[in-house]
Amino acid sequence: MPRLDDRLKLVASLIRGTNHADIGSDHGHLLAALLATGRIQRGIAVENKPQPHRNSTATLQGLNAEVRLGDGLNVIQENELDSLSICGMGGQSIVRILANHSNRLPDQMILQPNKAIGSVRQWALNNGYWLVDEQCTAGTRRFEVLLLRRSGMALDPVYRRLASVRLEESLGVMFGPWFLLRRDEDLQQRLAEEQRYLHAKQKLTAPSRQRMEAIDRLLSHDHFLSR
Protein backbone atom coordinates (compact mmCIF):
# COMPACT_ATOMS: atom_id res chain seq x y z
CA MET A 1 0.00 0.00 0.00
CA PRO A 2 1.40 3.45 -0.89
CA ARG A 3 2.44 5.63 2.03
CA LEU A 4 0.46 8.84 2.31
CA ASP A 5 1.80 12.15 3.55
CA ASP A 6 0.07 13.88 6.48
CA ARG A 7 -2.18 15.86 4.14
CA LEU A 8 -3.58 12.80 2.37
CA LYS A 9 -3.76 10.83 5.63
CA LEU A 10 -6.09 13.50 6.95
CA VAL A 11 -8.15 13.41 3.75
CA ALA A 12 -8.37 9.60 3.89
CA SER A 13 -9.54 9.66 7.50
CA LEU A 14 -12.67 11.59 6.44
CA ILE A 15 -13.62 9.28 3.56
CA ARG A 16 -15.93 6.30 3.79
CA GLY A 17 -18.22 5.20 0.99
CA THR A 18 -19.05 2.67 -1.68
CA ASN A 19 -18.15 4.39 -4.97
CA HIS A 20 -15.58 7.13 -4.53
CA ALA A 21 -13.90 9.31 -7.16
CA ASP A 22 -10.68 11.26 -6.71
CA ILE A 23 -10.37 14.13 -9.18
CA GLY A 24 -6.79 14.90 -10.11
CA SER A 25 -5.47 11.78 -8.38
CA ASP A 26 -1.95 12.21 -9.84
CA HIS A 27 -0.42 8.86 -8.76
CA GLY A 28 -3.58 7.17 -7.45
CA HIS A 29 -2.06 6.74 -3.98
CA LEU A 30 -5.11 8.02 -2.09
CA LEU A 31 -7.47 5.60 -3.83
CA ALA A 32 -5.06 2.71 -3.37
CA ALA A 33 -4.89 3.38 0.37
CA LEU A 34 -8.67 3.74 0.66
CA LEU A 35 -9.22 0.43 -1.13
CA ALA A 36 -6.54 -1.37 0.88
CA THR A 37 -8.08 -0.28 4.19
CA GLY A 38 -11.66 -0.99 3.12
CA ARG A 39 -12.80 2.60 3.48
CA ILE A 40 -14.26 2.43 -0.04
CA GLN A 41 -15.35 -0.48 -2.22
CA ARG A 42 -14.69 0.99 -5.67
CA GLY A 43 -12.53 3.85 -6.83
CA ILE A 44 -12.41 6.09 -9.88
CA ALA A 45 -9.38 8.26 -10.58
CA VAL A 46 -9.91 11.15 -12.98
CA GLU A 47 -6.89 12.67 -14.71
CA ASN A 48 -6.81 15.34 -17.41
CA LYS A 49 -3.28 14.67 -18.68
CA PRO A 50 -1.72 11.49 -20.14
CA GLN A 51 1.22 11.15 -17.72
CA PRO A 52 -0.84 11.33 -14.50
CA HIS A 53 -3.28 8.93 -16.18
CA ARG A 54 -0.44 6.46 -16.71
CA ASN A 55 0.82 6.99 -13.15
CA SER A 56 -2.57 6.25 -11.60
CA THR A 57 -3.16 3.30 -13.93
CA ALA A 58 0.07 1.69 -12.75
CA THR A 59 -0.70 2.28 -9.07
CA LEU A 60 -4.26 0.98 -9.26
CA GLN A 61 -3.63 -2.05 -11.42
CA GLY A 62 -5.31 -5.13 -9.96
CA LEU A 63 -7.50 -3.10 -7.59
CA ASN A 64 -11.24 -2.44 -7.86
CA ALA A 65 -10.62 0.89 -9.53
CA GLU A 66 -10.49 2.50 -12.94
CA VAL A 67 -8.71 5.54 -14.30
CA ARG A 68 -10.52 7.91 -16.65
CA LEU A 69 -9.00 10.60 -18.84
CA GLY A 70 -11.05 13.77 -18.79
CA ASP A 71 -11.66 17.14 -17.20
CA GLY A 72 -13.20 17.03 -13.75
CA LEU A 73 -16.67 15.55 -13.67
CA ASN A 74 -16.98 15.35 -17.47
CA VAL A 75 -16.28 11.61 -17.30
CA ILE A 76 -18.53 10.91 -14.29
CA GLN A 77 -22.11 9.79 -14.76
CA GLU A 78 -25.09 11.13 -12.83
CA ASN A 79 -25.75 9.14 -9.62
CA GLU A 80 -22.53 7.15 -10.11
CA LEU A 81 -20.81 8.32 -6.91
CA ASP A 82 -21.62 8.56 -3.25
CA SER A 83 -18.32 10.25 -2.35
CA LEU A 84 -15.82 12.54 -4.06
CA SER A 85 -12.44 14.08 -3.24
CA ILE A 86 -10.49 16.90 -4.86
CA CYS A 87 -7.10 17.68 -3.33
CA GLY A 88 -4.21 19.98 -4.03
CA MET A 89 -5.93 22.47 -6.34
CA GLY A 90 -6.75 26.12 -5.86
CA GLY A 91 -10.18 26.88 -4.46
CA GLN A 92 -11.37 28.58 -7.63
CA SER A 93 -10.40 25.55 -9.74
CA ILE A 94 -12.31 23.29 -7.34
CA VAL A 95 -15.37 25.53 -7.54
CA ARG A 96 -15.21 25.47 -11.34
CA ILE A 97 -15.19 21.67 -11.36
CA LEU A 98 -18.12 21.48 -8.94
CA ALA A 99 -20.17 24.13 -10.74
CA ASN A 100 -19.71 22.69 -14.23
CA HIS A 101 -21.65 19.49 -13.46
CA SER A 102 -23.69 20.07 -10.31
CA ASN A 103 -26.07 17.24 -11.28
CA ARG A 104 -23.21 14.72 -10.98
CA LEU A 105 -22.10 15.67 -7.48
CA PRO A 106 -22.46 13.05 -4.72
CA ASP A 107 -23.92 13.70 -1.29
CA GLN A 108 -20.48 13.73 0.37
CA MET A 109 -17.35 15.58 -0.74
CA ILE A 110 -13.92 15.94 0.86
CA LEU A 111 -12.06 18.95 -0.51
CA GLN A 112 -8.52 20.15 0.17
CA PRO A 113 -7.94 23.52 -1.49
CA ASN A 114 -4.41 24.88 -1.48
CA LYS A 115 -5.57 28.52 -1.64
CA ALA A 116 -8.76 30.60 -1.96
CA ILE A 117 -10.39 28.28 0.57
CA GLY A 118 -13.10 30.81 1.28
CA SER A 119 -14.41 30.46 -2.27
CA VAL A 120 -15.09 26.76 -1.60
CA ARG A 121 -16.89 27.51 1.68
CA GLN A 122 -18.97 30.17 -0.10
CA TRP A 123 -19.86 27.75 -2.89
CA ALA A 124 -21.04 25.21 -0.31
CA LEU A 125 -23.19 27.85 1.42
CA ASN A 126 -24.79 28.82 -1.88
CA ASN A 127 -25.38 25.29 -3.16
CA GLY A 128 -27.00 23.31 -0.36
CA TYR A 129 -23.93 21.65 1.16
CA TRP A 130 -23.25 21.86 4.87
CA LEU A 131 -19.70 22.07 6.16
CA VAL A 132 -19.98 19.28 8.71
CA ASP A 133 -16.30 19.33 9.65
CA GLU A 134 -13.01 20.98 8.78
CA GLN A 135 -9.60 19.94 10.00
CA CYS A 136 -6.02 20.91 9.29
CA THR A 137 -2.62 19.29 9.28
CA ALA A 138 0.01 20.12 11.87
CA GLY A 139 3.40 21.56 10.94
CA THR A 140 4.75 24.58 9.12
CA ARG A 141 2.47 24.19 6.10
CA ARG A 142 -1.21 24.33 7.07
CA PHE A 143 -3.45 22.23 4.80
CA GLU A 144 -7.16 22.60 5.49
CA VAL A 145 -9.57 19.78 4.62
CA LEU A 146 -13.31 20.39 4.30
CA LEU A 147 -15.99 17.72 4.69
CA LEU A 148 -19.24 18.67 2.90
CA ARG A 149 -22.60 16.90 2.88
CA ARG A 150 -25.63 17.74 0.80
CA SER A 151 -28.38 19.00 3.10
CA GLY A 152 -30.73 21.24 1.12
CA MET A 153 -30.79 25.02 1.08
CA ALA A 154 -31.36 25.72 4.81
CA LEU A 155 -28.60 27.74 6.44
CA ASP A 156 -25.69 25.58 7.54
CA PRO A 157 -25.98 25.09 11.33
CA VAL A 158 -22.31 25.87 11.89
CA TYR A 159 -22.92 29.44 10.72
CA ARG A 160 -25.88 29.72 13.09
CA ARG A 161 -23.50 28.68 15.87
CA LEU A 162 -21.12 31.43 14.75
CA ALA A 163 -23.94 33.95 15.01
CA SER A 164 -24.62 32.77 18.58
CA VAL A 165 -21.14 33.99 19.59
CA ARG A 166 -21.61 37.18 17.53
CA LEU A 167 -19.21 36.27 14.76
CA GLU A 168 -20.09 37.29 11.21
CA GLU A 169 -20.82 34.71 8.54
CA SER A 170 -18.23 36.40 6.31
CA LEU A 171 -15.52 35.71 8.91
CA GLY A 172 -16.52 32.06 8.95
CA VAL A 173 -16.30 31.85 5.18
CA MET A 174 -12.89 33.49 5.18
CA PHE A 175 -11.24 31.71 8.12
CA GLY A 176 -13.35 28.59 8.71
CA PRO A 177 -16.37 28.45 11.04
CA TRP A 178 -15.25 25.29 12.83
CA PHE A 179 -11.75 26.70 13.38
CA LEU A 180 -13.29 29.87 14.82
CA LEU A 181 -15.67 28.00 17.11
CA ARG A 182 -12.82 25.79 18.34
CA ARG A 183 -10.58 28.84 18.85
CA ASP A 184 -7.91 27.16 16.77
CA GLU A 185 -4.63 28.31 18.34
CA ASP A 186 -2.53 27.69 15.24
CA LEU A 187 -4.91 29.79 13.13
CA GLN A 188 -4.83 32.59 15.71
CA GLN A 189 -1.04 32.59 15.72
CA ARG A 190 -0.85 32.69 11.94
CA LEU A 191 -3.43 35.47 11.74
CA ALA A 192 -1.56 37.51 14.36
CA GLU A 193 1.62 37.18 12.27
CA GLU A 194 -0.29 38.20 9.13
CA GLN A 195 -1.83 41.12 11.00
CA ARG A 196 1.62 42.44 11.97
CA TYR A 197 2.82 42.03 8.38
CA LEU A 198 -0.17 43.83 6.87
CA HIS A 199 -0.05 46.69 9.36
CA ALA A 200 3.66 47.20 8.62
CA LYS A 201 3.03 47.66 4.88
CA GLN A 202 2.68 51.24 3.72
CA LYS A 203 0.40 50.49 0.78
CA LEU A 204 -2.22 47.74 0.55
CA THR A 205 -4.38 46.59 -2.29
CA ALA A 206 -8.13 46.71 -1.71
CA PRO A 207 -8.37 42.92 -1.08
CA SER A 208 -5.40 43.05 1.33
CA ARG A 209 -6.98 45.95 3.22
CA GLN A 210 -10.27 44.07 3.42
CA ARG A 211 -8.47 41.02 4.80
CA MET A 212 -6.53 43.11 7.30
CA GLU A 213 -9.76 44.66 8.57
CA ALA A 214 -11.34 41.19 8.89
CA ILE A 215 -8.33 39.92 10.86
CA ASP A 216 -8.48 43.01 13.10
CA ARG A 217 -12.16 42.39 13.88
CA LEU A 218 -11.60 38.72 14.54
CA LEU A 219 -8.54 39.00 16.78
CA SER A 220 -10.20 41.71 18.89
CA HIS A 221 -13.41 39.69 19.30
CA ASP A 222 -14.48 38.61 22.81
CA HIS A 223 -14.77 35.01 21.60
CA PHE A 224 -10.98 34.90 21.25
CA LEU A 225 -10.00 37.28 24.03
CA SER A 226 -11.84 35.17 26.64
CA ARG A 227 -9.59 32.11 26.36
UniProtKB/TrEMBL annotation:
PANTHER family reported in the protein's UniProt record: TRNA (ADENINE(22)-N(1))-METHYLTRANSFERASE (PTHR38451:SF1)
This protein's UniProt keywords: Methyltransferase, Transferase
UniProt protein name: tRNA-m1A22 methylase
InterPro entries per record: SAM-dependent_MTases_sf
Signal peptide positions on this chain: none
A GO biological process held by the record: methylation
Lineage: Bacteria, Pseudomonadati, Planctomycetota, Planctomycetia, Pirellulales
Presence of keyword Ubl conjugation: no
Domain of life: Bacteria
Keyword presence, Nucleotide-binding: no
GO MF entries: methyltransferase activity
